[in-house]
Structure formats: structure tokens, C-alpha cells
């Protein structure tokens, strides 16, 4: 599906002194409701700048943008769902570096600002690192879901550290209950929820630099730090007492069904770690903030690694340079560009200058507060690895691991699959 939307030139903005009106084309992955949301943002830019702004959305963005850039018919600005594709196009000379000062602005105005600079910086065709990507619209994964009534009835409190989370896990078992619901089933993608667990554990046991080296395979899966993160996941998932249905049920339980045990009476589990999208699979009528709530998947206090957050997000890059494209990136630095979408649905931002009262949804506001409290943000590692690994052996390896194979053996098999 592909649709183009034209935001007409704003006469008021032109007469207010815009230097010169240009046509600017924007191509991204959003269709349906999300397309309407981004169009509202771009309409505000059109009104302020006087530019003729045209957005095209496609569910085949990743394939089409490669075709367009290679054919010399790229849009002025492209919205990439993940950094790896943008990095590959930058290396081939298809992206234009963002203006000087943008990196400093991101460091100063985004929570965990250096993380966003790192994620948007790639080598160009000469091998020189430059900032090509501006992140706008973020997703959050480091969340634990629970039913407040269950916690209240049992006298449990939300843990503030990984040490407290593990202690709570053991306390629930001591009370004769089951702490976790975990499911890895996802059809042909079975295993991916476990990769998120391992990624979160890497960020909670190692520095961001080590995480980055793991993603790029500068350190292999067989490194003891990676094996250790896998076993950190195993501490939760491979203990029959800790998981609803026992450890054997983890791989066979569909991830969409796995949180439902929290809502049963009596509860079959008390906690479920999953990203911000999971309420779509809660029982119909469940109200987040009332029937169910969430807390930050905490870090180890003793390791002093701050508050790392795992997630994803879209980055905006210039694929066919004109002045209007640079003006659009500058517009995305304004609080207004973020607050427009905040007042709608499905938007999170690391921008520290926004008015959180502009969120239409209190749940999104609470998630955004977690994002703003992050000291490190890192992208989902499996999305950045070669597909044979990130969407292949890493997934299947985690299924094998929950089935009883050792972390060391699984890590070796994943490493052996890394493209030579």
C-alpha cells in the first residue's frame, strides 16, 4: 500500500518571509492512522515554512528506498524504521550529512543524548563518520507489566533495582505462587521475545560500548559477557518455579497469549516483561493504569550502569538534498514537532524540552517519563545484526536454550552462523 499526501503551500508563511518556497518529498513506513499523525506534523512545517510538502507512505519502505536511491529518484527526506539500512546507504554515498551543530543539539536536548548521536552516526563513502540520522518517534521495550490489584492483595511493592526484582521473584515463589509469564512463540519468528530479554540483560551487566561491540561482532557471541547475559535470562526463564507452566512451556507458549495469566483469578503469574505494544493482547476492556500497569525493567544497583533502556525508533535522513530538507530536520528539533504527535496516539520522544501535559494518553506519558530518565538508549540488537543471525540463529538459539541446551553451546552455534 502506498499513498501520497500533499500539504499545500501556506501563503501566510510565504508572505511572512520564508526565503524561498520549495517542494519537499518525504517517504516513510507509515500508512493508515500513523500516516495521518505524521501528516499533521508535516502540515505544521508546511504552514511555518511555506514549502510544498508531500508525504508518501509504504509498507514496503525498506525495499523501495533502495530502488529509489539506486535509480537516482530518491525523496528529499526518508524515514528509516531502523539504523542498519540507513547506515548501508550512507556508506554508499546516498545520504547527506546533517548540518553542523545538529549533533551538539541532540546531545544537549535529548535524554541519553550521546546514545542518539551514536545511533545516527555512520561512515560515509570515504569511511569518515558523520551524523546522518535524526531520531524522531521512539518505541520502548524495557517494561514489566503487572496487575496492581494482585500486588496489593499480596503486599508486593514495585522493585526499584534488579536485585529487588530477583528478590521479589523468589518471594512470590516462597508464598506459593508463580512470578512470571514468559512466552516465545511467534510462528516463524518464534524466539524473538527471548532476544529482547538478553539484550536488556547485556545493557544491565555491561557497558554500552560492550553492547555495541557485540552488535557488530567485534566481540563474539561466545564471549563470556554475552554468555553471562544469556544465563541472566535463564535465571528467570529456566526455573520451573519461576514460570507459569514451568520452563518447558516457555518456548511453546505464544507471546500474545503469555500475559493472560496475570488476569486470571487466582493469578497464574504476577509479572510479564514485554514492550509497550503488548496491551493490544490483554483481555478486552483492560485499562492500562487501572486494571494493569507497568514499571521500568530495572538495572542492577551494584553495577552502577545507570538506567539503560532498550527500544527502537525511526530516524529521518536526507536522501536528496535541498534547503527545505535541512529546514525540516531543524523543525524536528522544536518541541512543537513532538507535541503535535504527543497529542495524538502512539508517540514517545527523548526530547527533554517537551511539555508532558501535551500527551493525550497518560500511559504514554508514564512511558515517556521512563524514556526521559534513561542514561543510555540502545536499539534492539537483533534488528541490527545480519538477518541470518538477528532474525535466524539468535531466535532459534534462544528456543534451544530454554529447552535445556547450555548458553555456551547455543552461543557457539549462533556465532558459527555469523556471515563470514
Describe this structure in words.
There is one protein chain. The protein is of the alpha/beta class and 420 residues long. The chain has two domains: 2-140 and 311-379, 3-Layer(aba) Sandwich (D-Maltodextrin-Binding Protein, domain 2); 143-308 and 381-416, Periplasmic binding protein-like II (D-Maltodextrin-Binding Protein, domain 2), CATH 3.40.190. 41% of the residues lie in helices and 15% in strands. Strands 1, 2, 3, 4, 7, 11 and 12 form a seven-stranded mixed β-sheet that branches. The chain has a three-stranded antiparallel β-sheet with strand order 9-8-10. Strand 5 (121-123) and strand 6 (129-131) form a beta hairpin. Helix 2 (32-49) runs antiparallel to helix 13, helix 5 (102-109) runs antiparallel to helix 6 (113-120) and helix 9 (192-205) packs across helix 11. It is globular, with a radius of gyration of 22 Å. The chain starts with a strand and ends with a helix. Mean pLDDT is 94; it is low at 8-18.
Summarize the structure.
The protein is of the alpha/beta class and 420 residues long. The protein is 41% helix and 15% strand.
For this structure, the CATH topology of the largest domain is D-Maltodextrin-Binding Protein, domain 2
Biggest β-sheet strands, sense, barrel: 7 strands, mixed
The tally of structural domains comes to: 2
Strands, total number: 12
Amount of beta strand: 5-15%
Q: Structural class of the secondary structure composition?
A: alpha/beta
Helix/strand order, N-terminal first = EHEHEHEHHHEEEEHHHHHEEEHHHEHHH
Query: If you average the pLDDT, what whole number results?
Result: 94
Helicity level? 40-55%
The CATH class name of the largest domain reads: Alpha Beta
CATH superfamily heading of the largest domain: Periplasmic binding protein-like II
CATH architecture label of the largest domain: 3-Layer(aba) Sandwich
Quaternary state reads single chain
The CA-CA distance between the termini, in Å, is: 36 Å
**Rg measurement, Å:** 22 Å
**Which of globular, elongated, flat, extended, rod-shaped describes the shape?**
globular
Low-pLDDT ranges? 8-18
Number of helices: 17
Amino acid at each position: 500500500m502506498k499513498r501520497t499526501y500533499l500539504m499545500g503551500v501556506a501563503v501566510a508563511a510565504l508572505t511572512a518571509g520564508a526565503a524561498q518556497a520549495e517542494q519537499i518529498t518525504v517517504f516513510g513506513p507509515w500508512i493508515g492512522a500513523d500516516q495521518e499523525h505524521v501528516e499533521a506534523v508535516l502540515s505544521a512545517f508546511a504552514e511555518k515554512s511555506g514549502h510544498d510538502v508531500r508525504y508518501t507512505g509504504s509498507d514496503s519502505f525498506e525495499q523501495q528506498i533502495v530502488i529509489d536511491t539506486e535509480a537516482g529518484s530518491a525523496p528529499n527526506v526518508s524515514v528509516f524504521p531502523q539504523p542498519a539500512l540507513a547506515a548501508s546507504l550512507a556508506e554508499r554515498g546516498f545520504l547527506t550529512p546533517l548540518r553542523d551543530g545538529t549533533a551538539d543539539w541532540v546531545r544537549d536536548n535529548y535524554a541519553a543524548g550521546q546514545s542518539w548521536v551514536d545511533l545516527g552516526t555512520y561512515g560515509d563513502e570515504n569511511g569518515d563518520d558523520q551524523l546522518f540520522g535524526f531520531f524522531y518517534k521512539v518505541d520502548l521495550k524495557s517494561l514489566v507489566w503487572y496487575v496492581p490489584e494482585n500486588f496489593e492483595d499480596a503486599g508486593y511493592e514495585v522493585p526499584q533495582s534488579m536485585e529487588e526484582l530477583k528478590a521479589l521473584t523468589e518471594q512470590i515463589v516462597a508464598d506459593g505462587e508463580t512470578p512470571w509469564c514468559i512466552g516465545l512463540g511467534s510462528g516463524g519468528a518464534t524466539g524473538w521475545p527471548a532476544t529482547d530479554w538478553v539484550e536488556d540483560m547485556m545493557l544491565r551487566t555491561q557497558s554500552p560500548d560492550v553492547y555495541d561491540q557485540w552488535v557488530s561482532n567485534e566481540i563474539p557471541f561466545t564471549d563470556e559477557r554475552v554468555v553471562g547475559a544469556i544465563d541472566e535470562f535463564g535465571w528467570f526463564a529456566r526455573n520451573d518455579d519461576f514460570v507459569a507452566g514451568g520452563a518447558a512451556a516457555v518456548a511453546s507458549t505464544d507471546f500474545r497469549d503469555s500475559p493472560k495469566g496475570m488476569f486470571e483469578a487466582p493469578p497464574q503469574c504476577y509479572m510479564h516483561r514485554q514492550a509497550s505494544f503488548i496491551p493490544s493482547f490483554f483481555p478486552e476492556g483492560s485499562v492500562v493504569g487501572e486494571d494493569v500497569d507497568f514499571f521500568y525493567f530495572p538495572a542492577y544497583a551494584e553495577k552502577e550502569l545507570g538506567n539503560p533502556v532498550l527500544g527502537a525508533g525511526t530516524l529521518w535522513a536526507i536522501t536528496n538534498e535541498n534547503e527545505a530538507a535541512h529546514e525540516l530536520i531543524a523543525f524536528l528539533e522544536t518541541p512543537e514537532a513532538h507535541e503535535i504527535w504527543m497529542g495524538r496516539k502512539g508517540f514517545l520522544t527523548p526530547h527533554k524540552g517537551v511539555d508532558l501535559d501535551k500527551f493525550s494518553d497518560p500511559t504514554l506519558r508514564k512511558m515517556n517519563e521512563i524514556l526521559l530518565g534513561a542514561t543510555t538508549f540502545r536499539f534492539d540488537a537483533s534488528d541490527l545484526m545480519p538477518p541470518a543471525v538477528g532474525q535466524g540463529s539468535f531466535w532459534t538459539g534462544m528456543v534451544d536454550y530454554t529447552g535445556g541446551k547450555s548458553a555456551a553451546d547455543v552461543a557457539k552455534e549462533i556465532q558459527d552462523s555469523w556471515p563470514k
